[in-house]
Amino acid sequence: MEDNFFERVYAIVRQIPEGKVTSYGAIAKALGAARSARMVGWAMNASHDREDVPAHRVVNRIGMLSGKHHFDGTNLMQQLLENEGIAVIDNQIVDFEKHFWQPEISGQ
């Protein structure tokens, strides 16, 4: 089940538009697994060798770059977001209201 869940997470993350972010919980909810935000986090951590998964666009429910320590380099996650025009405040949080993207809830 884990591999299938991770692939479903990656399918949603690939849809996040450039310049937008979403949360672990929003992805979990879209997959019909609202209590699985932590598993979404595990999927993001496991995705770093996959260039087609923009994991830097996934933040926690308050817009914090909670996964930033999983990226190579000191501020890589922040740099990737800033390259897309997303300002990162105090090196750790994005303006959620301005940049949030809501994934479509699946009909599963």
Task: Give a quick precis of the structure.
This protein has 108 residues and is mainly alpha-helical. It has helices at residues 2-13, 24-30, 37-45, 76-83, 96-99, and strands at 22-23, 58-59, 88-89, 93-94. It contains five helices and four strands.
Strand-helix topology:
Layout: H1 2-13, E1 22-23, H2 24-30, H3 37-45, E2 58-59, H4 76-83, E3 88-89, E4 93-94, H5 96-99
Parallel strand pairs: 1-2
Antiparallel strand pairs: 3-4
Helix pairs in contact: 1-3, 2-3
3D structure, described in words:
By secondary structure, the chain is mainly alpha-helical. It has helices at residues 2-13, 24-30, 37-45, 76-83, 96-99, and strands at 22-23, 58-59, 88-89, 93-94. The strands form 2 sheets. Strands 1-2 form a two-stranded parallel sheet. A two-stranded antiparallel sheet has the order 3-4. Strand 3 and strand 4 form a beta hairpin. Helix 1 (2-13) crosses helix 3. The mean pLDDT is 91.
Please name the defining characteristics of this protein:
mainly alpha, two-stranded parallel ribbon, single chain, two-stranded antiparallel ribbon, 37% helix, globular, 108 residues, 5 helices, 4 strands
Q: Count of DSSP E strands?
A: 4
Largest sheet: 2 strands, parallel
- The DSSP helix count reads 5
**Which bin fits the share of residues in helices?**
25-40%
User: Biggest sheet, strands in spatial order?
Assistant: 1-2
Provide the residue-averaged pLDDT: 91
Query: Which segments are poorly predicted (pLDDT under 50) over 5 or more consecutive residues?
Result: none
Element-level helix/strand string:
HEHHEHEEH
Query: Outline, from the CA principal axes?
Result: globular
| Spatial separation of the terminal alpha carbons | 15 Å
